[in-house]
Specification:
six-stranded mixed sheet, alpha/beta, Purple Acid Phosphatase, chain A, domain 2, 370 residues
Length: 370
Amino acid sequence: MKSLLSLFLSISLLASPTNLTGLSQAIAALFNMKEIINTDYIGEVSMQTWDENTPFSLDDCVTLTKKDGEDFVILNITDTHFSDYDYRAFFAFESTHNIKRLVNKVKPDLITVSGDIVCADSTVYSIKRITDLFDSFGIPWAPAFGNHDDEGNADLNYLADVMMSSEYCVMQKGDPEMGVGNYIINIQEEGSGEIVETVFMMDTHRSHLNEKQIKWFESCASSINALTSNSSEISVIFHIPNVQYQYAFDVAWDEDAGEWKPGSDAYGEKNEKICCERDGNGNPKENGFFAAAKNVGAKFVFCGHEHMNNFSVEYEGIRLTYTLKIGYGSGFQFGFNGGTVINVGEDGINRITHKTLTYGFIQDIVDVEC
């Protein structure tokens, strides 16, 4: 057995040296399956607290610098679905390769990850594996959790602890009553120091945002507006779409013609149900987030979750966009494999582009000028 394992590892080294860590972790997980299944991995609960009386400070936000005269480039990756030892552990090799290709092509200033980073009943190896991957790029990266991340033997705090041990991970846990991973990223001009974009990273749990999160978002966004004289554009990245994705699609899509209505300012495809929060009868359930987003003048919302939807549509002044998922561990449909590039200029987001790798090379399939 040891000889076969050594041979397998040697072949992998020759084929792709950078995949050795992932392969060895997947094999280790297979050998230790019984042990890791019967172990709970619990992380440290955040001591941060927030209420309406908590003073806001820009020092509590993550601050990244945009070079004068150049776009700040965000590459969003979603629904990686890394797992310790089931079939998705081996699909992760393809995802790893493609993430590296995207990073090499896009050369982002920031990588955001919009949920379902890991999945299945064991994730203690796979979270280290994906942390090592993103850390290897040597640029800031910012994850948010999805509905599958905590279904395994490692809780969200443990997963966050591993990712936050990375030199380049900018994640903050935030108030535990709001979940794990609610934090703010400000992008500021190098010369003037003016904040041009504020990105809220938020934990949608297994359904969507809770009441306290929405209050926190509205309060902090209002404070940023006041401190920057509304110079900073507000955007949000989370995993599960809010109900307005359904409303926006219903308004913009011509069911009879099978296309977007003229003038709808909509792009991309819908190939599966919009899995927003719904009531017992299956009707979209409103939680107040969109009203808060409109109230603070937010302009962009990005989500993951649905693997075969990639549409982007403007609805009541806010552009709602599905980010393009990566890899085949989350299912396959031709063209739906890649990442989403978000360009931030001196006046905020100016372009959103889905870059697919399904065709053997990186190709733009949805390109929205904002």
